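Supplementary notes (optional reading)

For those who missed the lab, this is the record we used. Protein: BTB domain-containing protein. Length: 355 residues.
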Amino acid sequence: MSVPFRLEYPTWYVAEFAMGDFKCTGRTVLILDHASQDFGFVYWESGGGEAASVRTLPSTGQPVIFSAKDAMAICYHDESPKISILYRQTQADMLFYDDEDAYQFYNAFVAAAKDSQNLNLYCYEVHDVDKFEEEGFDMTKEQLVVERLLRTREISPFWPSLRRSGEWSDFTIVAGGKSFSVHSNKLHKESEYFRAIFNGGFAENDSRVINLPESERTINALLDQIYEMPKSTTESLFTGFVLLPAEEQEQPLNDLLELLIAADKYSLEKIKARVAKAITDRMPFIKDALTVVDLAIAIFDEQMPQVDCLRKQITEQIRYRMPMIVTNAVIWKEYSESKELLKAVHMHLFAYAKF
């Protein structure tokens, strides 16, 4: 099993995976959802143009996923293709095809844990490779791990708690008739736009209230991102978006596009990049080719921020979905009437042929 198109972000091929009672063998594709920092196993049917699917547990039908946010420890050996991850009630063991792939995944997992504010993750290299590769290797019996976990304490994230409570708020944002209590030092740090307001560049600095034209939904999601507490707009790919029926997938994509526009407008570059990754992560799982075409048209609209990873990935999706586009009159009409999209796809196909 291989990815049937090029992706703008890393994927890994796993030979074996075991977690609790679940075990699988054979070449399996592992990807990261950048919004939730969850990892999941995906596959494509043999035909052309279909959406990706997530591997599920035979007993429950739930997606097979594991998260960097909840991990307690991760270990590797530089001469082994194995990685082990410890959770509170289970251990995940995976075997890659070589030690280099394993180490690349190890680094990606550590980075994902950091992005998800998992400050307690213990990362270490196992000294005895033979012991590490034994089938019964148990991280809870590693003395280093036990000592570290005994010293671990829960860390309450500072900004998310202030976002929930509104405590020490000194500024108000109004959008869609709803008032949001915010903290000027947080917005000052994250955004050039708000920095200009707080430095006296706008009259709103005196009133301590600013009205924004975006919807309540968009500003609420934007503040969740600023305060490092992503919620429904960037919920888990594997337990949220993937499970939606085709007709319900368009709305969360539109929400993400609105969030991307707002992040660009208010100079929130980190959030802009994060949302762009969330959109690209979801592209392979869009079930309706018409939704893919509509998303592509929106991405190439002149009012949409130009983000390379978005444009490259959506044109790659159009190339992959082309068998379904050309055989459906409604979808083909939608696609062929967008000059910008046609131009981008033709250039992409030419580059792909050369590649």
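If you only remember one thing from this example: The first strand starts at residue 12 and ends at 19.
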